[in-house]
Write a structure and sequence with these properties.
single chain; 244 residues; alpha/beta; 7-stranded parallel sheet; globular
Length: 244
Amino acid sequence: MTRTEKVVLITGASSGIGEATARRLAADGHRVFLGARRTDRLAALAAEVADGGDRIGFQRLDVTDAADVREFVTAARERFGRVDVMVNNAGVMPLSPLAELKVHEWDRMIDVNVRGVLYGIAAVLPVMREQGGGHIVNIASVGAYEVVPTAAVYCATKYAVRALSEGLRQESAGDVRVTVVSPGVTESELADSISDPRAREEMKSYRSVAIPASAIADAIAFAVHSPAEVDVNELVVRPAASAQ
């Protein structure tokens, strides 16, 4: 490996921001290790991006399972020898009014969006400190800065991601770099999980102006490529034509 080449782990890499980030960072010359539940998509992505080389790997990953996340990190380390960057990207967004009492969906958002990030941090932090440094990139949302109807629980999970990122940054100064990237409306499958009819219709209007997932991948790449002495803490990326 060259001095500038990094080993990057990406969760939720089978579509959307995760897939776009894998493509961008692999094209930039990094080694990438992908995690998601849909291994058929990971295999197809790896075959396309690798182009016959040995610079990309993947493993089935459920971020709600702490042991699974640890095994994911271990597999990446065994494959490439180290872990330089962890992109905690996996997330879900089944919006609904609180009065609908969709507790199972609340639990799912907490499990994926909050515990998934915590499990990612727990799995890579000891590795990064042992090897003398690393970079954790957590994907939040503009929902980490505002709350709108039907999105109270989703926004709460993203506020949590932002808070966790800031706490980790303060505790890791000079050791591990921490970045939180907060996308605005982005082309992805995130809204497909909305089961509430009202929330689904409102989201169609809200998402009428969206940026491609590659725009968020570019923001992640900017943070990853910053010099070692620079810690890009927060990036908010919105469509230029949107007021939200």
